[in-house]
Design goal:
Length: about 150
Amino acid sequence: MTFRSNLVRAACMIGGLTALPFGTVLAAQTPSMAVSLESAVYVEKGGSTARTLQPASRLSPGDRVVTILTWHKSGPGNRFTLTNPLPRSVYYQGSAREDEEVSIDGGHTWGQLGSLRVADRLATPEDVTHVRWRISAVAPSGQIAYSAIVR
């Protein structure tokens, strides 16, 4: 399945939220290395003792969603950047990796969440507009997961 068809599938799963599709991920590529991407969106279900991930079919405000990005690279090279604009209908919670950078201004400037400012206050997860990861991997494929909450 192609990345674009995954986007369409993800958009259909999310239903009535207007700012989606989820996972419109961009990969910076070199001329000799191609990176293909897939995204899958899950909703977290369960109580305080047991939680499971289920494929997202419909989301409601307050739902915690987990997006899993799977990348496959071909050609020489082992460094690239994945950039993910977040839909306005969710706010970022965190990544499975601690080295992500976030933007609060539409992807113009980047930094760690605890260091960015909006006017006179520190930026919060609700301010995040984009998240990116710099990938340095010898392996031909990998995954990154991040969570968000539906507004």
